[in-house]
């Protein structure tokens, strides 16, 4: 039997305040959380949506050090960017706070102290890397060295970004401090650990037996961790940025960010509801839902619940954790360090007024069961062929026809014909599927249901043809356009969780004020006689130029990443002068150039070498159009033995230099020389 709850507390993973929010964050966490919160509000439920910025941890201190500012400067900057962009996208947080707030600091300190006083921690000493020059222990990200797996010279102490292998700082070959460049030493340090193994039986019972309805990816990852056996986990670390460990003898130590951050859900709720916050955390009739990405499953399903169990005092555990997989970008993993991302604050500038387009596309491509991909071409296609051509088209036709035949007043419906009854029967069926999908966090399918109302409306108008019926039967025309108006009103209700800006605009056109989910599926949402506003386009086409600009930006970022990561290749072994002099380097003029059939990389040159004409085949077709090379002078090796390539005898090798992005540039003289001139 399904349990009934009086209220719902929705939390969203705290975005890390060392950079802006990108579409991967939105698709994985914030858009689905907002859809669900808006849906519950439409259903008349007591719901609170809680969010905030995660503002502690090593990456923030690293960024601050690089920029020569304080960590507080960094988090102040990005907290504002994140909060403002969320608000502009319509993410309807009831509170969006931060982990540097006084409320959070007090809450997190009290949380640690209670567990400490109850004896829930294990105190342990270990050897860690220490920078004697800087006078501090080094967090994993402050240690760089050679990766023991792939040999990357700039691997971090927690992960090698070249091969993706997770590391410990002590795994690195020839480790160095990222702060001073000095070689660190091992030194003893004391920390406190939460014994997750103590809570393993309770967690196993709660998750594996009590929540078999959870998404497969969530349940499976939890089971894997539990089956491997849980281990104690440090809750403090040596750092000067964070919430100080509130016990004597802990100078220079702060709460580990993974322990600190989830307490932010509690402190943010306190900030919103200082007198009644406990009702949303400790009352068994409150349902708690955590929206997160898959990289946070363990923290929200195992670590944070263990913390709450250890604290006691009635704290409730989440009823569901509908974690999503990852969203990729143009076939590649989103990466903040490589600037391979679509940043929300930039999108809002580049596509003003198109918040709902992004919400729609991210929901349509939501990585609910597996990683999915965002491409700019798909973004454009969904806007133009779905939002403009289906949804916008139906609403526009319905409103325009009502103005044309009834001066903008919704006509009264006469007796329904079978086609009218069938349309409303299908609408009720759509509502049932839509509600079921929303209740079960299947937002991608729910969006399809909502769009099916617009498809139904278009189909209805095409089959009833009111523009033809109006020539002979205005009473029937009135019924048809009344039905169409009711379909528009149902669209306004159904899409409000997904596209609130469009819904508000449409409700303004239809003269609708308050709406609720129970009204969805009805045939009398708009009374006869109501005057409709003038038809306005709900969406407009996105042209190729706007999309090409975004694709170019990504390509430019990728090229810059290659340049930034490029290192000079080691010098080849010495070659004696006599051997080098055997190579006959000359300049020739390109007389003809063409692509080699069925060979994407090859160009065939006919070159004037001063004595005759020779053919050379070169693998540079990806980087040049053949006609652009005709008349150019190039350097080539003249005395290589002839070699057959794709059936063509190549008499030499054209010299090229390779850029960091792999692009080949043909070498030639900076001023004209006679064909056949030797390179000295």
From TrEMBL:
<keyword id="KW-0436">Ligase</keyword>
<dbReference type="GO" id="GO:0046872">
    <property type="term" value="F:metal ion binding"/>
</dbReference>
<feature type="binding site">
    <location>
        <position position="336"/>
    </location>
    <ligand>
        <name>ATP</name>
    </ligand>
</feature>
<keyword id="KW-0862">Zinc</keyword>
<dbReference type="Pfam" id="PF19303">
    <property type="entry name" value="Anticodon_3"/>
</dbReference>
<dbReference type="InterPro" id="IPR004495">
    <property type="entry name" value="Met-tRNA-synth_bsu_C"/>
</dbReference>
<dbReference type="Pfam" id="PF01588">
    <property type="entry name" value="tRNA_bind"/>
</dbReference>
<keyword id="KW-0963">Cytoplasm</keyword>
<dbReference type="InterPro" id="IPR023458">
    <property type="entry name" value="Met-tRNA_ligase_1"/>
</dbReference>
<feature type="domain" description="TRNA-binding">
    <location>
        <begin position="579"/>
        <end position="680"/>
    </location>
</feature>
<comment type="function">
    <text>Is required not only for elongation of protein synthesis but also for the initiation of all mRNA translation through initiator tRNA(fMet) aminoacylation.</text>
</comment>
<feature type="short sequence motif" description="'HIGH' region">
    <location>
        <begin position="15"/>
        <end position="25"/>
    </location>
</feature>
<dbReference type="InterPro" id="IPR001412">
    <property type="entry name" value="aa-tRNA-synth_I_CS"/>
</dbReference>
<dbReference type="InterPro" id="IPR033911">
    <property type="entry name" value="MetRS_core"/>
</dbReference>
<dbReference type="GO" id="GO:0004825">
    <property type="term" value="F:methionine-tRNA ligase activity"/>
</dbReference>
<dbReference type="GO" id="GO:0005829">
    <property type="term" value="C:cytosol"/>
</dbReference>
<dbReference type="InterPro" id="IPR014729">
    <property type="entry name" value="Rossmann-like_a/b/a_fold"/>
</dbReference>
<protein>
    <recommendedName>
        <fullName>Methionine--tRNA ligase</fullName>
        <ecNumber>6.1.1.10</ecNumber>
    </recommendedName>
</protein>
<keyword id="KW-0067">ATP-binding</keyword>
<keyword id="KW-0030">Aminoacyl-tRNA synthetase</keyword>
<dbReference type="GO" id="GO:0006431">
    <property type="term" value="P:methionyl-tRNA aminoacylation"/>
</dbReference>
<keyword id="KW-0547">Nucleotide-binding</keyword>
<feature type="binding site">
    <location>
        <position position="160"/>
    </location>
    <ligand>
        <name>Zn(2+)</name>
    </ligand>
</feature>
<keyword id="KW-0694">RNA-binding</keyword>
<keyword id="KW-0648">Protein biosynthesis</keyword>
<keyword id="KW-0820">tRNA-binding</keyword>
<feature type="binding site">
    <location>
        <position position="150"/>
    </location>
    <ligand>
        <name>Zn(2+)</name>
    </ligand>
</feature>
<feature type="binding site">
    <location>
        <position position="163"/>
    </location>
    <ligand>
        <name>Zn(2+)</name>
    </ligand>
</feature>
<comment type="subunit">
    <text>Homodimer.</text>
</comment>
<comment type="similarity">
    <text>Belongs to the class-I aminoacyl-tRNA synthetase family. MetG type 1 subfamily.</text>
</comment>
<dbReference type="InterPro" id="IPR029038">
    <property type="entry name" value="MetRS_Zn"/>
</dbReference>
<dbReference type="GO" id="GO:0005524">
    <property type="term" value="F:ATP binding"/>
</dbReference>
<dbReference type="InterPro" id="IPR002547">
    <property type="entry name" value="tRNA-bd_dom"/>
</dbReference>
<dbReference type="InterPro" id="IPR015413">
    <property type="entry name" value="Methionyl/Leucyl_tRNA_Synth"/>
</dbReference>
<feature type="binding site">
    <location>
        <position position="147"/>
    </location>
    <ligand>
        <name>Zn(2+)</name>
    </ligand>
</feature>
<dbReference type="InterPro" id="IPR014758">
    <property type="entry name" value="Met-tRNA_synth"/>
</dbReference>
<dbReference type="InterPro" id="IPR041872">
    <property type="entry name" value="Anticodon_Met"/>
</dbReference>
<keyword id="KW-0479">Metal-binding</keyword>
<dbReference type="InterPro" id="IPR009080">
    <property type="entry name" value="tRNAsynth_Ia_anticodon-bd"/>
</dbReference>
<dbReference type="Pfam" id="PF09334">
    <property type="entry name" value="tRNA-synt_1g"/>
</dbReference>
<dbReference type="InterPro" id="IPR012340">
    <property type="entry name" value="NA-bd_OB-fold"/>
</dbReference>
<dbReference type="GO" id="GO:0000049">
    <property type="term" value="F:tRNA binding"/>
</dbReference>
């Amino acid at each position: 039997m399904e349990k009934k709850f009086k209220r719902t507390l929705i939390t969203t993973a705290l975005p890390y305040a060392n950079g802006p929010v990108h579409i991967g964050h939105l698709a994985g966490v914030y858009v689905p959380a907002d859809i669900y919160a808006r849906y519950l509000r439409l259903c008349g439920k007591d719901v609170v949506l809680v969010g905030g910025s995660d503002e502690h941890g090593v990456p923030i201190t690293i960024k601050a050090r690089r920029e020569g500012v304080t960590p507080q400067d960094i988090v102040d900057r990005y907290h504002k960017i994140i909060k403002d962009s969320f608000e502009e996208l319509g993410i309807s947080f009831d509170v969006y706070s931060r982990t540097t707030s006084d409320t959070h600091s007090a809450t997190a300190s009290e949380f640690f102290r209670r567990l400490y006083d109850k004896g829930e921690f294990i105190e342990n000493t270990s050897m860690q890397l220490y920078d004697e020059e800087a006078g501090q222990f080094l967090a994993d990200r402050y240690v760089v060295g050679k990766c023991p797996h792939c040999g990357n010279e700039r691997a971090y102490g927690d992960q090698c970004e070249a091969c993706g292998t997770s590391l410990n700082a002590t795994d690195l070959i020839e480790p160095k401090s990222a702060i001073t460049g000095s070689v660190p030493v091992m030194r003893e340090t004391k920390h406190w650990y939460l014994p997750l193994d103590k809570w393993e039986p309770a967690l196993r019972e709660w998750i594996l037996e009590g929540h078999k309805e959870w998404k497969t990816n969530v349940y499976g990852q939890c089971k894997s961790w539990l089956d491997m056996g849980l281990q104690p986990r440090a809750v403090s670390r040596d750092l000067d940025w964070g919430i100080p460990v509130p016990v004597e003898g802990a100078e220079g130590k702060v709460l580990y960010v993974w322990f600190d951050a989830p307490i932010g859900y509690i402190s943010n709720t306190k900030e919103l509801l200082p007198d009644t916050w406990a009702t949303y955390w400790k009352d068994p009739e409150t349902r708690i839902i955590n929206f997160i990405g898959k990289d946070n499953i363990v923290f929200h399903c195992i670590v944070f619940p263990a913390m709450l169990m250890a604290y006691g005092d009635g704290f409730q555990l989440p009823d569901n954790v509908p974690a999503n997989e990852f969203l990729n970008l143009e076939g590649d993993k989103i990466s903040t360090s490589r600037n391979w991302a679509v940043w929300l604050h930039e999108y809002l500038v580049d596509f003003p007024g198109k918040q709902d387009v992004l919400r729609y596309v991210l929901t349509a491509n939501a990585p609910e069961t597996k990683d999915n991909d965002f491409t700019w071409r798909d973004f454009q296609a969904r806007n133009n062929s779905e939002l403009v051509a289906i949804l916008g088209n139906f609403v526009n036709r319905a409103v325009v026809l009502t103005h044309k035949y009834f001066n903008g007043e919704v006509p009264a419906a006469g007796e329904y014909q079978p086609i009218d009854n069938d349309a409303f029967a299908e609408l009720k069926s759509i509502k049932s599927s839509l509600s079921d999908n929303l209740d079960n966090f299947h937002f991608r399918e729910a969006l399809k249901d909502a769009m099916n109302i617009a498809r139904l409306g278009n189909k209805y108008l095409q089959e009833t043809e009111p523009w033809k019926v109006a020539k002979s039967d205005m009473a029937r025309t009135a019924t048809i356009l009344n039905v169409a108006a009711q379909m528009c009103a149902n669209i306004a209700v159904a899409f409000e969780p997904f596209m609130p800006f469009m819904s508000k605009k449409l409700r303004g056109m239809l003269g609708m004020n308050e709406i609720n989910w129970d009204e969805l599926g009805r045939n009398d949402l708009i009374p006869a006689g109501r005057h409709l506003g003038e038809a306005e386009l709900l969406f407009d086409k996105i042209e190729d130029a706007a999309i090409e600009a975004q694709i170019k930006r990504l390509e430019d970022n990728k090229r810059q990443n290659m340049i930034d990561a490029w290192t000079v290749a080691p010098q080849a072994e010495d070659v004696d002068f006599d051997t080098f002099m055997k190579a006959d380097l000359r300049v020739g003029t390109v007389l003809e150039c063409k692509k080699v059939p069925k060979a994407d990389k090859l160009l065939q040159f006919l070159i004037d070498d001063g004595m005759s004409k020779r053919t050379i085949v070169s693998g540079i077709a990806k980087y040049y159009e053949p006609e652009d090379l005709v008349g150019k002078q190039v350097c080539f090796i003249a005395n290589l033995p002839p070699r057959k390539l794709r059936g063509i005898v190549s008499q030499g090798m054209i010299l090229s230099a390779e850029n960091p992005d792999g692009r080949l540039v043909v070498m030639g003289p900076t001023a004209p020389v006679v064909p056949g001139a030797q390179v000295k």
